[in-house]
Write a structure and sequence with these properties.
455 residues, Uridine Diphospho-n-acetylenolpyruvylglucosamine Reductase, domain 2, Vanillyl-alcohol Oxidase, Chain A, domain 3, 3 domains, eight-stranded antiparallel beta sheet, five-stranded antiparallel beta sheet, 12 helices, 25% helix, globular, FAD-binding protein, FAD-bd_PCMH, oxidoreductase, Oxid_FAD_bind_N
């Protein structure tokens, strides 16, 4: 059967459970509450054998099979209606090999599960800014880490992947075994199978310098171009995020953030060994000096810390939320454009410009379909689900128009209707050839990220 042929829909969806059952609710639990999760059946797979059973059942039923773990980006690939949803949440531990500096991570684990296991050995991974994000999805979507300007995209740290294919085979793919599938899985946009484990490289990291400097919003348009000028030649040991924040007056937020609109600069500088700490502190001082000369911050928490503190710095929400967002890889912003951009989204919780360059732009020897970002900056805007956020996101995108590259970072797209283009045409065609070879009937076709160049 080809992708274009309509399958015969069967009625037996065992082991998937129907709507209204506790098992269905558990399997469909999602961090992104704004995206409807309404499959025909849902199942939490606790083992690789469970995943194989789920794939076989979906194949028999004639229904497409969709995947989720934490559900942060569950809206990216469109409605789940009439599909079967499997949530791989394997009852297996994270295994760290401190001598080889690797970790084997089963499907369903979050960075909050992995980091306690790695940091006890003085090692860490190229994790993201949130501990609640699923490791496998993050890696397959490229992975934008605060260590990335030194080490590149997290997808490049993947040594091997264990995958359940559409025909039920369980295969381990790597640079040496089925290299074309290994290439496509890393950033190809889904639709290849169910990844049930990843082996990743770890990096030595005893300490970091991290924190947040905060200024009044009135100073933002003066400070942002200075940060951008510094970012052009910043050493690769540091990765930062400049954000206009408008956070609600929540009790756990410090008074300089709660209920206020501010400009915040956070991130991390690596210090793999104790002797690296003085240089890391100097890098922070060199970043902040020209900014504090223009305007005194209302708070500055940059200080040395243990690596496990990093996911707390960016203030990603710890609980599920209903939000709308937009994102784009962008060129540098003209100095005269900053005020217009920063003022365009007054109702957004965050309007972020993430510093790229350095290792993010390097081409690795054995990268995947997505192995680098050539753009110097990444934009991300997010706010509560609603009309005000929709208007603000459109206004910010319009203000950013001169800087848009036409490409996005997959991990930051969580809405099917948003622009999302990852590859050039040649790479996209190569990915599709691999996808058709491993899933000729289109069992996983619903999990393929669409290419939308614009709204």
């Amino acid at each position: 059967m080809s992708h274009d042929e309509a399958p015969m829909i069967g009625t037996d969806i065992t082991p998937f459970r129907p709507p209204g059952t506790p098992e269905y609710a558990e399997a469909g639990a999602s961090f992104q509450l704004a995206a409807p999760v309404d499959p025909a059946g849902a199942f939490t797979a606790r083992s690789v054998d469970d995943v194989v059973r789920a794939v076989a059942a979906a194949r028999r039923s004639g229904r497409p099979l969709r995947l989720t773990t934490t559900g942060h980006a569950i809206g990216r690939t469109g409605p789940l209606t009439d599909s079967l949803l499997v949530r791989p949440l394997l009852d297996a531990p994270v295994r760290v090999d401190p001598d080889a500096r690797t970790a084997r991570v089963p499907a369903g684990k979050t960075w909050g599960d992995v980091l306690p296991e790695t940091t006890r050995y003085g090692l860490t991974a190229l994790h993201g800014s949130s501990s609640t994000v699923g490791v496998i999805g993050y890696l397959l979507g490229g992975g934008l880490s605060f260590y990335g300007r030194r080490f590149g995209l997290a997808a490049n740290s993947v040594r091997s992947l264990t995958v359940v294919l559409a025909d039920g085979q369980v295969v381990e793919v790597s640079a040496a075994h089925r290299p074309e599938l290994f290439w496509a899985l890393r950033g190809g946009g889904g639709g290849f199978g169910v990844v049930v484990a990843a082996e990743i490289d770890l990096i030595p990291m005893r300490r970091i310098v991290t924190g947040m400097a905060v200024w009044n919003a009135a100073d933002a348009a003066r400070l942002a171009p200075v940060w951008q000028a510094w970012a052009r030649t910043a050493p690769p040991e540091i990765t930062t995020s400049l954000r206009a924040l408008s956070l609600p007056p929540l009790p756990f937020l410090p008074p300089y953030l709660a209920g206020k609109r501010v400009l915040a600069l956070d991130g991390a500088v690596i210090a793999p060994t104790e002797p690296d700490l003085p240089a890391a502190r100097r890098i922070v001082d060199e970043m902040l000096s020209p900014l504090t000369a223009l305007a005194q911050p209302v708070a500055n928490t940059w200080a040395e810390a243990a690596p496990q503190a990093l996911p707390l710095i960016h203030l990603d929400p710890p609980q599920p939320v209903a939000s709308y967002s937009d994102s784009a890889l962008i060129h540098e912003i003209g100095e005269a454009d900053w005020a217009r951009i920063l003022d365009a989204g007054p109702n957004l919780l965050a309007l972020e410009l993430r510093q790229l360059g350095g290792g993010f732009a390097d081409t690795p020897a054995n990268g995947g379909a997505l192995d680098r970002f050539a753009a110097p900056l990444h934009y991300y805007g997010v706010g509560p689900a609603g009309e005000e956020t929709t208007r603000d996101l459109k206004a910010v995108r319009s203000a950013l128009e001169p800087s848009l590259t036409g490409f996005t970072a997959p991990n930051f797209v969580d809405d099917f209707e948003r622009p999302q283009r990852t590859h050039d045409d040649d790479t996209r065609a190569r990915v599709e050839r691999v996808r058709r070879a491993v899933d000729p009937t289109g069992l996983f076709a619903g999990d393929v990220a669409a290419t939308r160049d614009q709204d």
